[in-house]
């Protein structure tokens, strides 16, 4: 089997991280592993193993004929048997399948707004789905949605997994007082609901003035981003809340923090939550998507109601006030992630699926 991971960008998002993780993990486990980014490169490019065959398609539009020809040529020249298309890359994967009917196409649904599936666009996806040999879904709600709305017969739930490079060089020096940092690893998107976190932190800061909040994730420089920055300015939090954009040194950055937080309104199964676990951070997250599969009890972390700044504040303060309890929660979460969300467990399921189709 010669497997191509297909993804539209190499920005530091969840679907992108999974595509890179799969490509790296499959090296040596299948005959050959490849990755193609169709539209845009980004910081995750440097996380890709040198043993992974790589193509940047430079696709400029949905029906970019030159890009489609380049992809077909790459597939033909490298003898690729399976295309594992992540998120929005399903359309160009479908075009490749129509050109080469023997090609196996797997679509991986990473849709992050699984709490709002009623408003999800589906017309094009439904048409393409009859060409998919299999669908992987990152949570149970997405699986049920695909079974009800799409034409693919083979559909399975597949939890995400995370990998961190412990040998990476520290590039991002976090501001604030060492030993008193709260981290939110999430791109600046509305579904991540940074405003609720900022409201909670404003109250936390009244009693814990040395603590700081660190927001790491891509800044799309849009209206949502401007709202976040304006709130920080208006609430006089500029010396306590710091934005860094995307960072290439996630593992080294996580190790500079004491508490990991996710305040999302909607999720699939967030990679950030698994990455927090891998470094043993105590975690406070909202009870959305499949977060409860990772944090299944209070020994492994705390889940709070989404869009509830009061609950979020209290949960974070519990860890600030009880460092030993926080440390123990981080250790339990690490054990859980290593046991149930390791690359060995997930990759075996993926390879079995590749073989079965």
UniProtKB/TrEMBL annotation:
<dbReference type="InterPro" id="IPR028098">
    <property type="entry name" value="Glyco_trans_4-like_N"/>
</dbReference>
<feature type="domain" description="Glycosyl transferase family 1">
    <location>
        <begin position="179"/>
        <end position="329"/>
    </location>
</feature>
<dbReference type="Pfam" id="PF13439">
    <property type="entry name" value="Glyco_transf_4"/>
</dbReference>
<protein>
    <submittedName>
        <fullName>Glycosyltransferase</fullName>
    </submittedName>
</protein>
<dbReference type="GO" id="GO:0016757">
    <property type="term" value="F:glycosyltransferase activity"/>
</dbReference>
<dbReference type="InterPro" id="IPR001296">
    <property type="entry name" value="Glyco_trans_1"/>
</dbReference>
<keyword id="KW-0808">Transferase</keyword>
<feature type="domain" description="Glycosyltransferase subfamily 4-like N-terminal">
    <location>
        <begin position="13"/>
        <end position="165"/>
    </location>
</feature>
<dbReference type="Pfam" id="PF00534">
    <property type="entry name" value="Glycos_transf_1"/>
</dbReference>
């Amino acid at each position: 089997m010669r497997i191509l991971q297909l993804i539209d960008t190499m920005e530091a998002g969840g679907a992108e991280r999974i595509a890179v993780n799969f490509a790296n993990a499959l090296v040596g486990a299948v005959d050959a592993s490849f990755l193609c980014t169709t539209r845009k490169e980004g910081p995750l490019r440097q996380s890709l193993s040198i043993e992974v065959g790589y193509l940047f398609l430079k696709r400029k539009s949905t029906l970019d004929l030159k890009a489609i020809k380049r992809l077909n040529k790459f597939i033909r020249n490298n003898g690729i048997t399976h295309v594992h298309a992540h998120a929005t890359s399903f359309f160009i994967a479908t075009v490749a399948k129509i050109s080469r009917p023997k090609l196996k196409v797997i679509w991986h649904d990473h849709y992050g707004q699984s709490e709002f599936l009623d408003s999800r666009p589906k017309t094009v996806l439904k048409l393409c789905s009859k060409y998919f040999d299999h669908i992987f879904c990152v949570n149970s709600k997405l699986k049920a949605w695909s079974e009800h709305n799409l034409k693919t017969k083979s559909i399975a739930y597949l939890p995400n997994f995370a990998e961190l490079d412990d040998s990476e060089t520290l590039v991002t020096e976090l501001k604030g007082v060492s030993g008193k940092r709260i981290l939110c690893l999430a791109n600046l998107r509305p579904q991540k609901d940074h405003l609720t976190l900022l409201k909670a932190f404003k109250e936390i800061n009244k009693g814990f003035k040395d603590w700081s909040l660190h927001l790491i994730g891509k800044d799309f420089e849009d209206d949502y981003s401007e709202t976040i920055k304006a709130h920080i300015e208006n609430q006089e939090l500029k010396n306590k809340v710091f934005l860094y954009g995307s960072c290439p040194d996630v593992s080294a950055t996580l190790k500079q923090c004491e508490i990991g937080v996710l305040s999302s309104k909607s999720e699939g199964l967030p990679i950030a939550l698994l990455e927090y676990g891998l470094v043993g951070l105590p975690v406070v997250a909202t009870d959305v998507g499949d977060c409860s599969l990772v944090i299944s009890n209070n020994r492994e972390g705390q889940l709070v109601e989404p869009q509830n700044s009061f609950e979020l504040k209290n949960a974070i303060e519990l860890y600030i006030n009880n460092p030993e309890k926080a440390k123990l929660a981080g250790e339990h979460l690490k054990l859980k992630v290593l046991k149930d969300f390791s690359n060995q467990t997930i990759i075996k399921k993926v390879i079995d699926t590749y073989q079965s189709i």
